[in-house]
């Protein structure tokens, strides 16, 4: 009995060893091989589109800069002038939302020409007084009984007293206060008038006058169309040089470029302002550009007929 069981186990073990390689071969045949992805040749180009349009908005920086011996005096003077400037801007037609404070600063400015004794806090040295001229020597007296008596010289006059008050010493420093607003002018025919109104109200700093577009969507669309056409033309020219043809677009990206047009800085100062002469301003045109990066797939051009 034991011999029969041993023979059965040996038979089963041999059967398993013979079947296992067959099963492995069948599994290998059932799994299809993974095909390698075909290599795609591409060409990358950058197209550009530039357009321009008349601006519809202007922006400018304007404000005041004052100096005074104390912070209180400087801030009080700056506040009074800036209040008049803001009122003038609103009277010129600017809305509250189009006037925004862009800078407010207080600085200590030291005077470079202060005498050393003043900077050190010492008292001013007394000015040197020139010594009084010596009285002329008296002539020798004539002997008694001989001729007239010699006259006595006049006594020297004392130096005149300085009746004018002494000038105060120059300050060692002053405080400078600057207050600036950025304004948006939506009526371009009123730009010069707004600048003149601010200067007449006390503004002594005006700069950064620029022109731009409030709505750029239509301009972007026109620039984008030109950029795509330019990219296609460049890609076709390169493909033709290499004897291939363009395939579908693989990827595309866009870079928008635009900037304001700056007017020449006006030399505006309250001291040289004349109400009879307005400030001329020219708006010109606003340039707008965009770039597109396009990647095209390449296809082999069909071979021509054989001769």
From TrEMBL:
Start and end residues of each stretch annotated as Disordered: 127-172
Record's compositionally biased regions (Low complexity): 135-149
Lyase found in the keyword field: no
InterPro entries tied to this protein: 26kDa_periplasmic_antigen (IPR052022), SIMPL/DUF541 (IPR007497)
Signal peptide range: 1-24
Gene Ontology biological process: DNA damage response
The keyword Signal is annotated on this UniProt entry: yes
Pfam family, one: SIMPL
Keywords: Signal
Taxonomy, superkingdom: Bacteria
Biased composition (Pro residues): 150-172
Protein name: Secreted protein
């Amino acid at each position: 009995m034991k011999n029969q069981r041993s023979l059965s186990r040996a038979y089963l073990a041999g059967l398993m060893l013979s079947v296992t390689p067959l099963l492995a071969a069948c599994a290998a045949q059932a799994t299809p091989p993974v095909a390698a992805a075909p290599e795609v040749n591409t060409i990358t180009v950058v197209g550009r589109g530039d357009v321009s349009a008349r601006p519809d908005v202007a922006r400018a920086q304007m404000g005041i800069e004052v100096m005074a011996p104390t912070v209180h005096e400087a801030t009080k003077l700056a506040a009074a002038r800036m209040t008049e400037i803001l009122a003038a801007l609103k009277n010129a037609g600017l809305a509250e939302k189009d006037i925004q404070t862009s800078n407010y600063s207080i600085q200590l400015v030291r005077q470079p020409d202060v005498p050393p004794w003043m900077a050190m806090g010492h008292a001013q040295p007394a000015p040197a007084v020139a010594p009084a001229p010596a009285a002329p020597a008296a002539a020798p007296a004539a002997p008694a009984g001989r001729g007239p008596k010699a006259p006595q010289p006049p006594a020297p006059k004392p130096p005149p007293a300085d009746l004018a008050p002494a000038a105060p010493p120059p300050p060692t420093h002053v405080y400078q206060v600057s207050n600036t607003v950025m304004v948006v002018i939506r009526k371009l025919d009123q730009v010069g008038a707004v600048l003149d109104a601010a200067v007449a109200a006390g503004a002594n700093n005006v700069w950064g006058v620029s022109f731009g577009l409030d709505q750029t969507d239509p301009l972007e669309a026109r620039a984008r169309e030109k950029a795509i056409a330019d990219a296609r033309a460049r890609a076709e020219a390169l493909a033709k040089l290499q004897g291939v043809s363009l395939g579908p677009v693989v990827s595309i990206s866009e870079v928008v470029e635009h900037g304001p047009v700056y007017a020449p800085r006006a030399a505006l100062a309250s001291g040289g302002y004349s109400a009879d002469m307005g400030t001329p301003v020219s708006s010109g045109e606003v340039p707008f550009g965009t770039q597109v990066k396009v990647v095209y797939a390449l296809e082999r051009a069909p071979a021509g007929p054989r001769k």
